[in-house]
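Supplementary Methods. Inverse-folding protocol.

Structures were first reduced to a discrete structure-token string of length 421. This string, shown here, constituted the complete conditioning input.
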């Protein structure tokens, strides 16, 4: 089935449940009925959907399976936020004394997580320029556990050459992880190009109206083969004493391994779990995601083309512009250009002036909403970065980020034109 159909029908059997809409299982716990069934459930013999909502919930399971199908993955794990999804993905592979590789061109919160919080846990982050993937090999050693980057970076709108990074990751048998939030599974499927794990902040385009916080991790099909007996990843291949000596890779559960261990170890112990109600909201958002991404992309391209003609604009960052240096790469990996773009004006002061004068665009620290959003990253989302970190992330003092919504593009262009006059 095609994505539009999967988004509406996959992972849910109306004939069995008897409802057109997916039900909300708004419960923390489940009645096991007998001591024997309870014991077998905690021994992982009955699946995870009806044990305890911290490790599984029927509504959340539908969201996970449906999203995984859109990404063409083998399994998914929902979390309480996009940041917790990123955090779990790293803790799933790295210990104190290990290192990960990450691109400079990341969301500011991710850079802070990697540079400070992970450092306190003894996990080193070595940064690379995603525009020069050939430099990655110089950073790899026996303790390298992951290569992390964004398919479309926020807010520099850099498009990664996914295949080149996959080639390096596979050469050294390292897990590759991509934050695909900006592109969504409608515009890009990194797993199809060999990426091992995809992460999304579902708080963005998945809900589409800024209604809920959540995240999701999806692993590719056959990732089991890369992890099994891989000396880089002992947690998957040695006995877990907290489950009476369970070895996660022997045998893997229904072809999933990365998200299964994340669920049974990290979600169980740390507990940053998605609520059933938020799962239900995300399910509603998925049903219209393909339509919305088409309109987001069309509006964004129109605005990017307008900005190229404006004398106040020094540079426009949008991969589907004919003038973009990422045009060829974007044509390879992206179905459309996404709803996110950024542009540079002459100074910090000019950027703040434009942001303060718009009327339709809202000043909000979010992206992916049906309502258009304008942000000055240097003073908000990336404020915590040093001047050097800002430069490497592609965030200049005069950079303005637009999350283009679903309004009429003519009105949005006029709003920007008046603010820049």
């Amino acid at each position: 089935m095609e994505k539009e159909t999967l988004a509406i029908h996959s992972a849910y059997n109306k004939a069995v449940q008897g409802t057109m809409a997916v039900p909300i299982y708004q419960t923390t716990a489940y009645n096991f009925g007998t001591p024997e069934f309870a014991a077998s459930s905690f021994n992982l013999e009955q699946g995870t959907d009806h044990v305890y909502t911290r490790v599984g919930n029927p509504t959340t399971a539908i969201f996970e399976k449906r999203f995984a199908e859109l990404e063409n993955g083998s399994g998914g794990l929902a979390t309480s936020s996009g940041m917790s999804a990123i955090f779990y993905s790293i803790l799933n592979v790295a210990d104190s004394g290990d290192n990960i590789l990450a691109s400079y061109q990341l969301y500011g919160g991710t850079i802070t997580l990697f540079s400070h919080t992970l450092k306190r846990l003894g996990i080193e982050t070595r940064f690379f320029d995603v525009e020069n993937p050939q430099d990655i090999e110089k950073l790899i050693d026996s303790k390298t556990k992951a290569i992390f980057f964004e398919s479309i970076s926020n807010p520099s709108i850099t498009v990664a050459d996914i295949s080149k990074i996959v080639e390096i990751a596979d050469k050294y048998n390292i897990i590759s992880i991509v934050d695909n939030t900006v592109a969504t599974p409608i515009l890009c499927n990194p797993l199809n190009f060999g990426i091992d794990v995809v992460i999304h902040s579902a708080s963005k385009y998945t809900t589409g109206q800024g209604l809920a916080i959540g995240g999701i991790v999806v692993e590719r099909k056959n990732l089991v083969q890369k992890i099994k007996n891989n000396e880089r990843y002992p947690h998957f291949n040695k006995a877990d004493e907290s489950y009476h000596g369970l070895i996660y890779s022997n045998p893997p559960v229904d072809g999933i391994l990365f998200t299964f261990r994340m669920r049974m170890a990290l979600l169980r112990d740390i507990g940053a779990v998605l609520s059933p109600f938020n799962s239900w909201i995300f399910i509603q958002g998925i049903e219209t995601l393909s339509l919305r991404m088409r309109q987001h992309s069309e509006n964004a391209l129109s605005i990017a083309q307008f900005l190229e003609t404006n004398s106040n604009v020094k540079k426009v960052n949008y991969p589907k512009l004919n003038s973009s240096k990422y045009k060829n790469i974007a044509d390879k990996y992206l179905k459309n250009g996404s709803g996110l773009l950024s542009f540079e004006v002459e100074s910090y002061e000019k950027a703040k002036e434009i942001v303060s004068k718009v009327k339709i665009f809202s000043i909000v620290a979010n992206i992916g909403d049906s309502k258009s959003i304008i942000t000055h990253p240097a003073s908000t989302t990336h404020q915590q970065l040093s001047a050097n970190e800002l430069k490497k992330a592609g965030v200049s003092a005069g950079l303005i980020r637009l999350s283009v919504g679903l309004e009429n593009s003519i009105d949005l262009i006029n709003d920007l034109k008046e603010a820049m006059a």
